Amino acid sequence: MPKKAATESVADAAAAPGGVAAVDRALSLVAAFRPGDAALGLADLAERTRLYKSTVLRLLASLEHARWIQRLDDGRYALGPEIARMHARYASAFSLEHVVVPVLRDLVAATGESAAYHVRQGDARLCLYRVDSPSPIRDFIKAGDLLPLNRGTGGRVLTAYDPVLGQADGPDRELYARIRADGYFAAVGDRLAEVAGITVPVLRDDGTICAAVTLTAPAHRYKADNLKAVQAAAARLRGLVG
């Protein structure tokens, strides 16, 4: 018989009546990730779930196979792309869409360029909503796409306002400090050489970031004056989302 844990696991302490214990435990691993956690090691996951490491490894194998968890090169674990996909599907039916998308449409109408709403997703950013430019010459990001945090104006802003990543030592620390001071980031070619972007954070009422509004355009159509329209869009969303 398997050895009984000296301390009851998080999942067993709040088990679903009539449910499956293994499912409860697997979900407790997913729930172990907290805001600001880009990745967690085996010891961290075992400590937070109060499960044996051997049990954690078996559950992680199934979660990784289903793409709910991904194993990184350094041996740590991060949330997987299936969570982002499901989040996008959930969000598409959630009332948040009715708040955000009209603002993006107005931004596109005012500028003629593509507008997107990005949120942090583990060690990446998720394009949660997107309204395309009417021009046939544009970038082709779509809702549900995962993009890097360390490239592109959307990723830079989400990183700059993150209480951990934005303050970390590194070659971009001064850039992130400037982004916070300016309250936006505009650049040409930060992710793709031929694409320009302007991003403004969407803040909660307490001043913390919950998302970012990004306007993208081909580099040759970049207009610095479009910053005002992006700032107005982010201001409309402040306190309404997140």
TrEMBL record:
Keywords, alphabetical: DNA-binding, Transcription, Transcription regulation
Protein name per its UniProtKB record: Transcriptional regulator
Record carries keyword Transmembrane helix: no
GO biological process: negative regulation of DNA-templated transcription
GO MF annotation: an example: DNA binding
Annotated Pfam families: HTH_IclR (PF09339), IclR_C (PF01614)
Keyword Transcription: yes
Domain HTH iclR-type: 20-81
PANTHER family linked to this entry: HELIX-TURN-HELIX TRANSCRIPTIONAL REGULATOR, ICLR FAMILY, TRANSCRIPTIONAL REGULATORY PROTEIN
